[in-house]
Design brief:
The protein is α/β, with parallel strands linked by helices. It contains 18 helices and 17 strands. It has three domains: 53 residues, Orthogonal Bundle (3-methyladenine DNA Glycosylase II, Chain A, domain 3), CATH 1.10.15.40; 249 residues, Alpha-Beta Barrel (TIM Barrel), CATH 3.20.20; 118 residues, Rossmann fold (3-Layer(aba) Sandwich). The N and C termini lie far apart (72 Å).
Protein backbone atom coordinates (compact mmCIF):
# COMPACT_ATOMS: atom_id res chain seq x y z
CA UNK A 1 0.00 0.00 0.00
CA UNK A 2 1.36 3.43 -0.91
CA UNK A 3 2.21 5.79 1.91
CA UNK A 4 0.31 9.04 2.46
CA UNK A 5 1.86 12.48 2.64
CA UNK A 6 1.63 12.41 6.42
CA UNK A 7 3.35 9.01 6.58
CA UNK A 8 6.22 10.44 4.55
CA UNK A 9 6.31 13.65 6.59
CA UNK A 10 6.87 11.67 9.80
CA UNK A 11 10.14 10.33 8.37
CA UNK A 12 11.46 13.69 7.11
CA UNK A 13 13.89 15.86 9.16
CA UNK A 14 11.17 18.54 9.59
CA UNK A 15 13.70 21.38 9.41
CA UNK A 16 11.91 23.28 6.63
CA UNK A 17 15.34 24.02 5.14
CA UNK A 18 13.82 24.78 1.70
CA UNK A 19 16.76 23.09 -0.08
CA UNK A 20 14.27 20.92 -1.98
CA UNK A 21 12.74 24.05 -3.49
CA UNK A 22 9.56 23.94 -1.40
CA UNK A 23 8.77 26.09 1.65
CA UNK A 24 8.08 23.25 4.11
CA UNK A 25 8.79 19.56 4.66
CA UNK A 26 5.05 18.91 4.67
CA UNK A 27 4.69 20.40 1.19
CA UNK A 28 7.58 18.21 0.02
CA UNK A 29 5.95 15.12 1.54
CA UNK A 30 2.69 15.81 -0.26
CA UNK A 31 4.51 16.19 -3.58
CA UNK A 32 6.33 12.88 -3.07
CA UNK A 33 3.08 11.11 -2.18
CA UNK A 34 1.51 12.48 -5.37
CA UNK A 35 4.41 11.15 -7.44
CA UNK A 36 5.52 14.63 -8.47
CA UNK A 37 8.88 14.65 -6.65
CA UNK A 38 11.49 12.06 -5.71
CA UNK A 39 12.88 11.46 -2.22
CA UNK A 40 16.38 12.11 -3.56
CA UNK A 41 15.48 15.79 -3.72
CA UNK A 42 15.60 15.98 0.08
CA UNK A 43 19.33 16.40 0.91
CA UNK A 44 18.90 15.78 4.63
CA UNK A 45 16.92 12.55 4.59
CA UNK A 46 18.64 9.76 6.52
CA UNK A 47 19.50 6.47 4.84
CA UNK A 48 17.24 4.51 7.15
CA UNK A 49 14.27 6.76 6.40
CA UNK A 50 15.05 6.59 2.69
CA UNK A 51 14.87 2.81 2.80
CA UNK A 52 11.58 2.83 4.70
CA UNK A 53 10.08 5.29 2.24
CA UNK A 54 11.24 3.55 -0.93
CA UNK A 55 7.71 2.49 -1.87
CA UNK A 56 6.45 6.06 -1.72
CA UNK A 57 9.41 7.38 -3.70
CA UNK A 58 8.91 4.93 -6.57
CA UNK A 59 6.87 6.37 -9.46
CA UNK A 60 3.31 5.00 -9.61
CA UNK A 61 4.03 3.61 -13.09
CA UNK A 62 7.33 1.98 -13.94
CA UNK A 63 9.59 3.27 -16.72
CA UNK A 64 10.55 0.45 -19.09
CA UNK A 65 13.26 0.59 -21.75
CA UNK A 66 12.68 -1.38 -24.94
CA UNK A 67 15.51 -2.02 -27.36
CA UNK A 68 19.26 -1.63 -27.31
CA UNK A 69 21.11 1.52 -26.32
CA UNK A 70 21.14 4.07 -29.11
CA UNK A 71 17.80 3.04 -30.57
CA UNK A 72 15.87 2.25 -27.39
CA UNK A 73 12.46 3.72 -26.60
CA UNK A 74 11.27 4.37 -23.06
CA UNK A 75 7.64 3.98 -22.09
CA UNK A 76 5.69 4.45 -18.89
CA UNK A 77 6.36 6.54 -15.79
CA UNK A 78 3.32 8.71 -16.45
CA UNK A 79 2.08 10.78 -13.52
CA UNK A 80 -1.34 12.16 -14.51
CA UNK A 81 -4.62 10.92 -15.94
CA UNK A 82 -5.25 14.00 -18.04
CA UNK A 83 -2.69 15.90 -20.08
CA UNK A 84 -3.86 19.33 -18.90
CA UNK A 85 -3.03 18.40 -15.30
CA UNK A 86 0.69 18.46 -16.17
CA UNK A 87 1.75 16.61 -19.34
CA UNK A 88 2.34 13.10 -20.67
CA UNK A 89 6.06 12.36 -20.59
CA UNK A 90 6.99 9.32 -22.71
CA UNK A 91 5.30 9.09 -26.12
CA UNK A 92 3.70 5.78 -27.00
CA UNK A 93 5.83 3.50 -29.17
CA UNK A 94 4.08 2.53 -32.41
CA UNK A 95 4.99 -0.98 -33.62
CA UNK A 96 4.07 -2.16 -37.12
CA UNK A 97 3.36 -5.86 -37.58
CA UNK A 98 5.29 -8.31 -39.74
CA UNK A 99 4.67 -12.04 -40.10
CA UNK A 100 7.55 -14.49 -39.92
CA UNK A 101 5.77 -16.56 -42.60
CA UNK A 102 6.71 -13.94 -45.22
CA UNK A 103 9.60 -14.65 -47.56
CA UNK A 104 13.04 -13.20 -47.04
CA UNK A 105 12.48 -10.82 -49.95
CA UNK A 106 9.19 -9.59 -48.52
CA UNK A 107 10.68 -9.08 -45.05
CA UNK A 108 13.65 -7.22 -46.46
CA UNK A 109 11.38 -5.01 -48.59
CA UNK A 110 9.14 -4.30 -45.59
CA UNK A 111 12.14 -3.19 -43.54
CA UNK A 112 13.17 -0.84 -46.33
CA UNK A 113 9.61 0.52 -46.47
CA UNK A 114 9.62 0.97 -42.69
CA UNK A 115 12.65 3.26 -42.89
CA UNK A 116 10.82 5.42 -45.45
CA UNK A 117 7.81 6.01 -43.19
CA UNK A 118 8.94 9.49 -42.16
CA UNK A 119 6.44 12.34 -42.24
CA UNK A 120 7.28 16.03 -41.58
CA UNK A 121 4.70 17.81 -39.42
CA UNK A 122 4.91 21.20 -37.70
CA UNK A 123 8.69 21.26 -37.77
CA UNK A 124 9.30 17.68 -36.62
CA UNK A 125 9.39 14.27 -38.24
CA UNK A 126 6.88 11.70 -37.06
CA UNK A 127 7.49 7.99 -37.66
CA UNK A 128 6.79 4.51 -36.25
CA UNK A 129 9.26 3.22 -33.66
CA UNK A 130 9.19 -0.58 -33.56
CA UNK A 131 8.41 -3.71 -35.52
CA UNK A 132 6.24 -6.44 -34.01
CA UNK A 133 7.23 -9.81 -35.45
CA UNK A 134 4.31 -12.27 -35.28
CA UNK A 135 5.07 -16.01 -35.15
CA UNK A 136 2.63 -17.40 -37.72
CA UNK A 137 4.83 -19.86 -39.60
CA UNK A 138 4.70 -22.55 -36.91
CA UNK A 139 8.44 -23.02 -37.28
CA UNK A 140 10.70 -21.86 -34.41
CA UNK A 141 13.70 -21.80 -36.75
CA UNK A 142 11.91 -19.58 -39.25
CA UNK A 143 10.81 -17.26 -36.44
CA UNK A 144 14.39 -16.90 -35.20
CA UNK A 145 15.69 -16.32 -38.74
CA UNK A 146 13.03 -13.69 -39.41
CA UNK A 147 13.87 -11.95 -36.12
CA UNK A 148 17.54 -11.83 -37.10
CA UNK A 149 16.75 -10.43 -40.55
CA UNK A 150 14.38 -7.75 -39.27
CA UNK A 151 16.80 -6.74 -36.52
CA UNK A 152 19.63 -6.40 -39.01
CA UNK A 153 17.67 -4.67 -41.79
CA UNK A 154 15.47 -2.32 -39.75
CA UNK A 155 17.69 -1.68 -36.73
CA UNK A 156 14.77 -0.70 -34.48
CA UNK A 157 13.42 -2.11 -31.19
CA UNK A 158 11.19 -5.15 -31.63
CA UNK A 159 8.20 -6.88 -30.12
CA UNK A 160 8.35 -10.66 -30.47
CA UNK A 161 4.88 -12.26 -30.43
CA UNK A 162 4.55 -16.03 -30.21
CA UNK A 163 2.73 -18.80 -28.41
CA UNK A 164 5.95 -20.80 -28.30
CA UNK A 165 8.09 -19.85 -25.30
CA UNK A 166 11.05 -21.78 -26.66
CA UNK A 167 10.93 -19.81 -29.90
CA UNK A 168 10.77 -16.52 -28.00
CA UNK A 169 13.71 -17.52 -25.85
CA UNK A 170 15.74 -18.69 -28.87
CA UNK A 171 15.22 -15.37 -30.66
CA UNK A 172 15.81 -13.19 -27.57
CA UNK A 173 18.95 -15.07 -26.51
CA UNK A 174 20.20 -15.65 -30.05
CA UNK A 175 20.21 -12.94 -32.75
CA UNK A 176 18.55 -10.37 -30.43
CA UNK A 177 20.73 -11.02 -27.39
CA UNK A 178 21.35 -7.77 -25.51
CA UNK A 179 18.81 -5.89 -27.65
CA UNK A 180 15.97 -6.10 -25.11
CA UNK A 181 13.05 -7.05 -27.35
CA UNK A 182 9.62 -7.02 -25.72
CA UNK A 183 8.47 -10.64 -25.37
CA UNK A 184 4.75 -11.23 -25.77
CA UNK A 185 3.87 -14.88 -25.10
CA UNK A 186 0.38 -15.68 -26.36
CA UNK A 187 -1.88 -18.37 -24.99
CA UNK A 188 -2.18 -19.97 -21.57
CA UNK A 189 1.08 -19.28 -19.78
CA UNK A 190 1.75 -19.20 -16.05
CA UNK A 191 3.47 -16.40 -14.17
CA UNK A 192 6.33 -18.77 -13.29
CA UNK A 193 6.86 -19.54 -16.97
CA UNK A 194 6.84 -15.83 -17.77
CA UNK A 195 9.30 -15.16 -14.96
CA UNK A 196 11.63 -17.89 -16.26
CA UNK A 197 11.38 -16.38 -19.75
CA UNK A 198 12.21 -12.89 -18.46
CA UNK A 199 15.11 -14.10 -16.31
CA UNK A 200 16.71 -16.20 -19.04
CA UNK A 201 16.27 -13.65 -21.85
CA UNK A 202 16.99 -10.56 -19.72
CA UNK A 203 14.25 -8.83 -21.72
CA UNK A 204 11.02 -7.03 -20.83
CA UNK A 205 7.96 -9.27 -20.69
CA UNK A 206 4.30 -8.63 -21.52
CA UNK A 207 1.47 -10.04 -19.40
CA UNK A 208 -1.87 -10.26 -21.23
CA UNK A 209 -5.41 -11.11 -20.18
CA UNK A 210 -8.28 -9.63 -18.22
CA UNK A 211 -7.33 -7.03 -15.64
CA UNK A 212 -7.73 -9.28 -12.60
CA UNK A 213 -5.57 -12.08 -13.99
CA UNK A 214 -2.98 -9.59 -15.25
CA UNK A 215 -2.74 -7.99 -11.79
CA UNK A 216 -2.29 -11.39 -10.17
CA UNK A 217 0.37 -12.43 -12.68
CA UNK A 218 2.23 -9.11 -12.35
CA UNK A 219 2.23 -9.44 -8.57
CA UNK A 220 3.74 -12.91 -8.88
CA UNK A 221 6.38 -11.61 -11.30
CA UNK A 222 7.28 -8.79 -8.91
CA UNK A 223 7.72 -11.36 -6.15
CA UNK A 224 10.14 -13.24 -8.44
CA UNK A 225 12.15 -10.04 -8.94
CA UNK A 226 10.96 -9.34 -12.49
CA UNK A 227 10.60 -5.59 -12.85
CA UNK A 228 10.47 -4.76 -16.56
CA UNK A 229 6.87 -5.65 -17.28
CA UNK A 230 4.21 -4.44 -19.69
CA UNK A 231 0.57 -5.36 -19.22
CA UNK A 232 -2.04 -5.79 -21.93
CA UNK A 233 -5.69 -6.66 -22.55
CA UNK A 234 -4.47 -8.70 -25.51
CA UNK A 235 -6.45 -8.79 -28.78
CA UNK A 236 -9.61 -7.52 -27.06
CA UNK A 237 -12.51 -5.63 -28.60
CA UNK A 238 -12.50 -1.84 -28.43
CA UNK A 239 -14.69 -1.50 -25.33
CA UNK A 240 -12.74 -4.10 -23.36
CA UNK A 241 -9.39 -2.60 -24.35
CA UNK A 242 -10.45 0.93 -23.39
CA UNK A 243 -11.78 -0.33 -20.08
CA UNK A 244 -8.49 -2.10 -19.36
CA UNK A 245 -6.41 0.94 -20.29
CA UNK A 246 -8.47 3.28 -18.12
CA UNK A 247 -8.74 0.99 -15.10
CA UNK A 248 -5.03 0.21 -15.11
CA UNK A 249 -4.05 3.88 -15.29
CA UNK A 250 -6.47 4.89 -12.53
CA UNK A 251 -5.42 2.03 -10.26
CA UNK A 252 -1.74 2.88 -10.70
CA UNK A 253 -1.98 6.65 -10.32
CA UNK A 254 -4.90 7.14 -7.97
CA UNK A 255 -4.65 4.02 -5.79
CA UNK A 256 -0.89 3.44 -6.15
CA UNK A 257 -1.70 -0.20 -6.90
CA UNK A 258 1.72 -1.60 -7.84
CA UNK A 259 0.59 -4.75 -9.73
CA UNK A 260 -0.99 -2.47 -12.36
CA UNK A 261 1.71 0.20 -12.23
CA UNK A 262 3.21 -0.73 -15.58
CA UNK A 263 2.97 0.58 -19.17
CA UNK A 264 0.14 -0.92 -21.22
CA UNK A 265 0.42 -2.55 -24.64
CA UNK A 266 -2.63 -2.29 -26.91
CA UNK A 267 -3.35 -4.04 -30.20
CA UNK A 268 -5.27 -2.36 -33.03
CA UNK A 269 -5.32 -4.61 -36.09
CA UNK A 270 -7.82 -6.57 -38.11
CA UNK A 271 -9.80 -6.89 -41.29
CA UNK A 272 -11.44 -3.47 -41.11
CA UNK A 273 -8.33 -1.34 -41.30
CA UNK A 274 -10.12 1.99 -41.01
CA UNK A 275 -11.85 0.88 -37.80
CA UNK A 276 -8.54 -0.47 -36.49
CA UNK A 277 -6.82 2.86 -37.23
CA UNK A 278 -9.55 4.72 -35.35
CA UNK A 279 -9.14 2.32 -32.42
CA UNK A 280 -5.40 2.95 -32.53
CA UNK A 281 -5.92 6.71 -32.22
CA UNK A 282 -8.22 6.15 -29.24
CA UNK A 283 -5.73 3.83 -27.54
CA UNK A 284 -2.93 6.35 -28.04
CA UNK A 285 -4.98 9.02 -26.31
CA UNK A 286 -6.17 6.70 -23.56
CA UNK A 287 -3.38 5.49 -22.48
CA UNK A 288 -1.39 2.97 -24.55
CA UNK A 289 2.37 2.96 -24.03
CA UNK A 290 3.04 0.52 -26.88
CA UNK A 291 0.64 0.18 -29.81
CA UNK A 292 0.80 -2.80 -32.16
CA UNK A 293 -0.89 -2.00 -35.47
CA UNK A 294 -0.91 -3.24 -39.06
CA UNK A 295 -1.43 0.28 -40.44
CA UNK A 296 1.48 0.26 -42.87
CA UNK A 297 -0.38 2.45 -45.37
CA UNK A 298 0.51 6.15 -44.87
CA UNK A 299 -3.13 7.27 -45.01
CA UNK A 300 -3.81 5.04 -41.98
CA UNK A 301 -0.52 5.53 -40.15
CA UNK A 302 -0.28 9.32 -40.28
CA UNK A 303 -3.47 9.93 -38.24
CA UNK A 304 -2.13 7.57 -35.55
CA UNK A 305 1.24 9.32 -35.41
CA UNK A 306 -0.45 12.72 -35.48
CA UNK A 307 -2.66 11.75 -32.54
CA UNK A 308 0.45 10.76 -30.62
CA UNK A 309 2.26 13.98 -31.47
CA UNK A 310 -0.73 16.05 -30.38
CA UNK A 311 -1.37 14.30 -27.08
CA UNK A 312 2.29 14.23 -26.02
CA UNK A 313 3.01 17.92 -26.51
CA UNK A 314 3.24 19.97 -23.32
CA UNK A 315 -0.07 21.86 -22.97
CA UNK A 316 1.61 24.46 -20.77
CA UNK A 317 4.18 25.38 -23.43
CA UNK A 318 2.87 26.67 -26.76
CA UNK A 319 4.55 24.99 -29.71
CA UNK A 320 6.38 27.74 -31.54
CA UNK A 321 9.01 28.42 -34.16
CA UNK A 322 11.83 30.91 -33.93
CA UNK A 323 10.59 34.44 -34.57
CA UNK A 324 12.46 35.55 -37.68
CA UNK A 325 12.25 36.03 -41.45
CA UNK A 326 12.06 32.77 -43.40
CA UNK A 327 12.72 32.15 -47.08
CA UNK A 328 10.42 29.62 -48.75
CA UNK A 329 11.73 28.53 -52.11
CA UNK A 330 14.26 30.63 -54.00
CA UNK A 331 13.09 33.97 -52.65
CA UNK A 332 14.38 37.17 -54.26
CA UNK A 333 13.93 40.85 -53.29
CA UNK A 334 10.74 41.03 -55.39
CA UNK A 335 9.17 37.99 -53.70
CA UNK A 336 6.03 38.47 -51.57
CA UNK A 337 6.42 39.00 -47.83
CA UNK A 338 3.72 37.43 -45.66
CA UNK A 339 3.33 38.11 -41.96
CA UNK A 340 2.08 35.60 -39.38
CA UNK A 341 2.76 34.63 -35.76
CA UNK A 342 5.39 32.23 -34.45
CA UNK A 343 2.75 29.70 -33.35
CA UNK A 344 3.90 26.50 -35.07
CA UNK A 345 0.55 25.54 -36.50
CA UNK A 346 0.01 29.04 -37.90
CA UNK A 347 3.50 29.25 -39.39
CA UNK A 348 3.54 25.77 -40.93
CA UNK A 349 0.02 26.23 -42.33
CA UNK A 350 1.24 29.34 -44.14
CA UNK A 351 4.49 27.70 -45.22
CA UNK A 352 2.67 24.62 -46.52
CA UNK A 353 0.31 26.70 -48.65
CA UNK A 354 3.20 28.76 -50.03
CA UNK A 355 5.10 25.60 -50.97
CA UNK A 356 1.99 24.12 -52.60
CA UNK A 357 1.52 27.32 -54.63
CA UNK A 358 5.14 27.08 -55.84
CA UNK A 359 5.58 30.83 -55.44
CA UNK A 360 8.88 31.77 -53.72
CA UNK A 361 8.06 33.92 -50.69
CA UNK A 362 9.37 35.31 -47.46
CA UNK A 363 7.43 34.73 -44.23
CA UNK A 364 7.91 36.93 -41.18
CA UNK A 365 7.10 35.03 -37.98
CA UNK A 366 6.36 37.62 -35.31
CA UNK A 367 7.06 36.68 -31.68
CA UNK A 368 3.65 36.30 -30.06
CA UNK A 369 4.85 33.78 -27.45
CA UNK A 370 3.49 30.92 -29.52
CA UNK A 371 -0.09 32.09 -29.89
CA UNK A 372 -2.21 32.08 -33.04
CA UNK A 373 -3.12 35.15 -35.09
CA UNK A 374 -6.49 35.93 -33.53
CA UNK A 375 -5.41 34.96 -30.02
CA UNK A 376 -2.29 37.13 -30.29
CA UNK A 377 -4.28 40.04 -31.73
CA UNK A 378 -6.84 39.80 -28.90
CA UNK A 379 -3.99 39.74 -26.36
CA UNK A 380 -2.33 42.75 -28.05
CA UNK A 381 0.74 40.70 -29.00
CA UNK A 382 0.14 40.89 -32.76
CA UNK A 383 -0.26 44.59 -33.37
CA UNK A 384 1.33 47.38 -35.45
CA UNK A 385 4.09 47.89 -32.90
CA UNK A 386 5.17 44.25 -32.64
CA UNK A 387 4.99 43.74 -36.41
CA UNK A 388 6.98 46.92 -37.09
CA UNK A 389 9.60 45.87 -34.54
CA UNK A 390 9.80 42.42 -36.13
CA UNK A 391 10.33 43.96 -39.57
CA UNK A 392 13.22 46.03 -38.27
CA UNK A 393 14.77 43.17 -36.27
CA UNK A 394 14.69 40.88 -39.33
CA UNK A 395 16.27 43.49 -41.60
CA UNK A 396 13.36 43.21 -44.02
CA UNK A 397 14.07 46.69 -45.41
CA UNK A 398 17.26 45.49 -47.06
CA UNK A 399 15.82 42.17 -48.28
CA UNK A 400 12.52 43.26 -49.84
CA UNK A 401 12.50 45.68 -52.77
CA UNK A 402 8.76 46.34 -53.17
CA UNK A 403 8.20 47.49 -49.57
CA UNK A 404 4.88 45.65 -49.26
CA UNK A 405 3.70 43.23 -46.60
CA UNK A 406 0.70 40.90 -46.64
CA UNK A 407 -1.12 40.48 -43.33
CA UNK A 408 -3.79 37.88 -42.45
CA UNK A 409 -7.32 38.93 -43.39
CA UNK A 410 -8.49 38.29 -39.82
CA UNK A 411 -6.54 41.36 -38.62
CA UNK A 412 -7.36 43.71 -41.50
CA UNK A 413 -8.41 46.27 -38.88
CA UNK A 414 -4.75 47.03 -38.06
CA UNK A 415 -3.68 47.71 -41.65
CA UNK A 416 -3.92 51.52 -41.60
CA UNK A 417 -2.10 51.94 -38.29
CA UNK A 418 0.51 49.37 -39.33
CA UNK A 419 1.17 51.26 -42.57
CA UNK A 420 1.58 54.51 -40.66
CA UNK A 421 3.82 53.06 -37.98
CA UNK A 422 6.02 50.86 -40.17
CA UNK A 423 6.17 52.93 -43.35
CA UNK A 424 5.37 49.81 -45.40
CA UNK A 425 2.47 49.37 -47.79
CA UNK A 426 0.09 46.93 -46.12
CA UNK A 427 -1.92 44.46 -48.18
CA UNK A 428 -4.72 42.43 -46.63
CA UNK A 429 -4.42 38.78 -47.54
CA UNK A 430 -6.90 35.93 -47.18
CA UNK A 431 -8.49 35.13 -43.84
CA UNK A 432 -7.53 31.45 -43.99
CA UNK A 433 -4.22 29.87 -44.99
CA UNK A 434 -6.01 27.83 -47.66
CA UNK A 435 -6.56 31.04 -49.61
CA UNK A 436 -2.87 31.95 -49.84
CA UNK A 437 -2.21 30.00 -53.04
CA UNK A 438 -4.98 31.63 -55.09
CA UNK A 439 -4.10 35.03 -53.61
CA UNK A 440 -0.43 34.77 -54.63
CA UNK A 441 -1.30 33.58 -58.13
CA UNK A 442 -4.19 35.92 -58.88
CA UNK A 443 -3.86 39.06 -56.78
CA UNK A 444 -0.21 39.58 -55.83
CA UNK A 445 1.70 42.21 -57.78
CA UNK A 446 5.16 43.31 -56.74
Amino acid sequence: MALTGLDIYKKLPKTNCKECGLPTCLAFAMKVAAGQLMLDQCPKLSDSARGELSEASAPPQRLVKLGADGVAVEVGQETVLFRHEERFHHPAAVALTLSDSASVEVLRSACADFRKLQFPRVGTTIHPDMIALIHESGSPDKFVSAAELVCREAGVPMVLVSGDRAALLAAACGPLAGRRPLLYCRGDVSSDQLADLAEQSKSPICVAGDIASVAAAAEALIARGVKDILISPGPADTAAAMSFLTQARRAALKKKYRPLGFPVLAIAAGGDKFAAAMDACAYICKYAAVLITDAWEPHLLVPILTSRQNIYTDPQKPVQVEAKLYDVGEAVPASPLLVTTNFSLSYYSVEGEVEAARVPCRILAVNTEGTSVLTAWAADKFNPSTISAALKAAGAESKVSHHKIIIPGHVAVISAQLAEESGWQVLVGPREASGIGPYLKNEWRA
